[in-house]
Design brief:
Blueprint: H1 8-32, E1 61-62, H2 68-81, E2 85-87, H3 95-105, E3 113-118, H4 125-139, E4 144-149, H5 171-183, E5 187-193, H6 197-206, E6 213-217, H7 225-233, E7 237-241, H8 262-271, H9 275-285, E8 289-290, H10 297-304, H11 313-320, H12 332-335
Parallel strand pairs: 1-2, 2-3, 3-4, 4-5, 5-6, 6-7, 7-8
Helix pairs in contact: 2-3, 2-10, 3-4, 4-5
Bound molecules: NADP nicotinamide-adenine-dinucleotide phosphate (NAP).
Residues 62-64, 87, 150, 193-194, 215, 241-244, 247-249, 259, 276, 291-296, 299, 302-303, 329 line the site of NADP nicotinamide-adenine-dinucleotide phosphate (NAP).
């Protein structure tokens, strides 16, 4: 026995130390044990996995339809006001001016979240990198925080304004090309926009680098509660576009404008808010990122305040009750493709 080598006085100490060491090892092993359902697994496609959600600043500035002449000053104003998230896209035609606004704001690049989007005419794998390079050049940036596949629809290569559907294109091949952009350090995260559940599932099952965000229409009139939950459960942060419902004039909607809804007006007034602030706060309280667009600095500032609004569980319940499953952005007919199958408002 090794202990017999020690003088009797030391034997007790050595035994004690050995027992202490064994106890420490047992405690360490117990601490390392984790029940199976708490282990984070990526893109396994299983229903019982917990996916971590990526942090995205919860309120961003939408830039679609801000006229070029105003874009740089609105973006600069927003960033100096405290916005840290800009939602841009090549098809909006104002990325150069967005970049000028970012540069003029003086906000360090590392404090910003900038989203860009791959337009439908650049789905071919060989077109993906050049499209991103154009966006980076226009924005004056050397990387994007998030690059989205703008639509699950491919157009033939050509002008961004031509709509000729490419029915042979494969979303998965486009996704693989987008994954290369992450590996090259040109984009930090990749995601999808305007997908339905089946299309998103295809990407999730195929992806080596899974989508961390899904941008789609979401507001009090089109709440998509089940779909929002499904996306969050599958590791995709939801970014709500048109968070003010049918306020975008292009929607040419016959529906009451959300900001003039009588019920919402009196509700907002009771809370000392505007309806825009109420709608945006409701979105953020659901864990959804909102990206309202305004080309007016007073509204950009008004929308920013929505981050500080406190809504109670009862307020949320009341607002959840105004869902009308009313979708305002659906180019299915115009493009002769079926979008949003299986989702609300179709
Ligand atoms: N991924 C996609 O396919 C997709 C599709 C649509 C939109 N988006 C993104 O989402 C962003 C937001 O969506 P959106 O532009 O369709 O709609 P929105 O932000 O819900 O609404 C914009 C409209 O609301 C007005 N508005 C903004 N704040 C207001 C306020 N506080 N009071 C009164 N009116 C206010 C704006 O007018 P003024 O500008 O005149 O103030 C504008 O007409 C877009 O800019 C774009 O970045 C993405």
């Amino acid at each position: 026995m090794v202990l017999t080598l020690y003088p009797p006085a030391l034997r007790g100490i050595v035994t004690g130390l050995t027992v202490l060491m064994l106890l420490s090892i047992i405690i360490y092993l117990i601490q390392q044990y984790k029940p199976v359902d708490s282990i984070i697994t990526w893109h396994s496609g299983g229903e019982n996995t917990i996916q971590p959600l990526f942090y995205i600043p919860p309120l961003g500035l939408g830039t679609w339809q801000i006229p070029k002449s105003k874009t740089a000053s609105v973006v600069k104003f927003a960033l100096q006001k405290g916005y840290r998230h800009i939602d841009a896209a090549l098809i909006y035609g104002n990325e150069k001016q967005v970049g000028e606004g970012i540069a003029a704001s003086g906000v360090p690049r590392s404090s910003l979240w900038v989203t860009g989007k791959l337009w439908n005419n650049a789905h071919h794998p060989s077109a993906v990198r050049p499209a991103l390079e154009q966006t980076l050049k226009d924005l004056g940036l050397d990387y994007l925080d998030l690059y989205l596949m703008h639509w699950p629809v491919a157009f033939e290569a050509g002008s961004i304004y031509d709509v000729v559907i490419d029915r042979h294109s494969d979303l998965l091949e486009t996704w693989t090309a987008m994954e290369s952009l992450v590996r090259e350090g040109l984009v930090r995260q990749i995601g999808i926009s305007n997908f339905n559940r089946e299309q998103a599932e295809q990407i999730l099952h195929h992806a080596k680098i899974p989508p961390t965000a899904h941008e789609f229409e979401c507001h009090p009139y089109l709440q998509q509660t089940d779909f929002v939950r499904w996306n969050l459960e599958h590791g995709m942060r939801v970014i709500a576009f048109s968070p003010l419902g049918n306020m975008n004039p292009i929607y040419n909607s016959s529906h009451t404008p959300l900001l003039q809804d009588e019920f919402l007006l009196s509700f907002a007034e009771r809370k000392g808010l505007t309806v825009a602030q109420l709608a945006l706060a409701w979105g953020m309280h659901r864990g959804v990122v909102v990206i309202p667009k305004s080309e007016h600095t007073d509204r950009v500032a008004e929308n920013f305040e929505a981050q500080y609004v406190q809504l109670t569980a009862d307020d949320m319940k009341t607002l959840n009750g105004v869902d009308e499953k009313a979708r305002f952005n659906n180019p299915s007919e115009e493009w002769d493709v079926q979008l949003y199958s299986g989702l609300d408002g179709v």
